[in-house]
Amino acid sequence: MKLYNINQPSEQVTFTQALLQGLGKNQGLFFPKDLPKFSIFEINSLLEMSFIERSTHILSTYIGSELSKNSILTCVKNAFNFPVPLVCINNNVAILELFHGPTLAFKDFGSRLMAQMLNQTNHCSDKPMVILTATSGDTGAAVAHAFFNLSNIHVIILYPRGKISALQEKLFCTLGGNISTISVNGDFDSCQRLVKKAFDDSVLRQKLNLNSANSINIARLLAQICYYFEGVSQLPHQMRNKLVIAVPSGNFGNLTAGLLAQSCGLPVKKFIAATNINDTVPRFLEFGYWEPRPTLSTFSNAMDVSSPNNWSRIEELFRRENKSIKELEYGCVNDFLTEKTVQEIADLGYLSEPHTAVAYRSLCDKLHSDEFGIFLGTAHPVKFKELVEDFLKKKIQLILPIVLKERMKLPVLSYNIPTCFSSLRNLILSIMS
């Protein structure tokens, strides 16, 4: 598999190099040089396979001979060892539940596959591998648990202090060992900027083998393609040619993966980018100018991102496919509508949480009567239990898994820094000394 740096196309790497390197020169994201295309016959055959068999085939098609099919199969089996049910809400709308992994969020897919692949390809080096990543909520837990206790890899996670839920913080800030966590006195975009600066810093590059587990890493992106195929495989055949998918979007990795699945030949009529009031992309699609504003805190906190990293990949894909970016549908949902939508979905007999509600609202606003809609459930409602109870004005019967319940009793082990890169550099060097 060959990939090129979107910001500096002359930089071309293999899949293994992109996996180990994470980010290219000039903070550029890597993008596949060749995009797989499956025929209608191949798509139909893929949709008849099991999730594990199909995912192995898709990933092997992208990666090529760099990893054997048996190696990829082992990674997939170890990573995707939980269900991905499609649950009907009404006659023409269903939710694809992506939150049945160990940290109850869709990011378990990408983080676990990336950890398994790194475990196979991280050969001996004279510098320790450090996974440096930023989170607005769920990525931190998924990455921490995916890499916890893996040998020769240390994980450092930045998150905005006071801007993620207590459970989200406890999930990844109580592990210790090879997991270090840093709360930053700023928003997610501040954390993301610090991570990008770290990758450009000559001192850290000299001393450490830096990588990232954000959706900037190609392994995470490829993993997410697989569950779009799984969702479509569970639909009746007659629904597949009129499918609309709404994706709750923050850093836009999830939507990028869906669009790549569509590019492969997966029958999706259109995608809807569903955001909260951090609406840089909706405003760009409507007015044609890119103007990130200060990030605002919302109920759907994992989507509180104003400068989404993966947007450059989406633009690159549309350019490569000779399609207008204006073809992409979008929705923007404020907190008032988010709360009302959680209530509306509950009235239909389904318990959701804010991120899911943003996707459902955007889907319902755009779905035509002759279409079938899927919205992605990216987090288990138990992770937002108090907030959902406040919305519904009643207690709800959601039981936290024992392993997560125990985490709530443990102390937070995080460091705290200002939004100052020298503070981050000094702390990283101290942690790794």
TrEMBL record:
Keyword tags: Lyase, Pyridoxal phosphate
Keyword check for Lyase: yes
Coiled coil: none
Domain Tryptophan synthase beta chain-like PALP: 96-367
Domain of life: Bacteria
Obligatory cofactor(s): pyridoxal 5'-phosphate
Name of this protein: Threonine synthase
Species, as recorded: Candidatus Blochmanniella chromaiodes str. 640
Gene, per the UniProt record: thrC
